[in-house]
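Sat 14:20. Reprocessing the chain from the morning session after the first attempt stalled halfway. Input below, unchanged.
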Amino acid sequence: MSGEIKKHTVERIQTGVRIEKRILKVTKGLAEYLDMSLGDLLEGVLLHAFEGEAPFSAQTLERIKVLRGLYDLDLTAADAHLMGEASTTRD
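Finished this time. Tokens:
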């Protein structure tokens, strides 16, 4: 059957990752907007990126723009390799 979609069985693991606070807020907001889990969104974005493809439609990019404004996310792709941790001091 040519119209049949083959499902893939995968093994998922729980992981802890550190991510910039505002990026996480925008990503979680986008996952909610798309009615999917954060993990499913990240998997989709990464699979698209691994193939050099854009993961989002024009409509989704517009939603991301709104979420970026809502959460004051001013970082861009150009900042990806320029981010450092905020210094913390103990008294």
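The chain has a mean pLDDT of 92.
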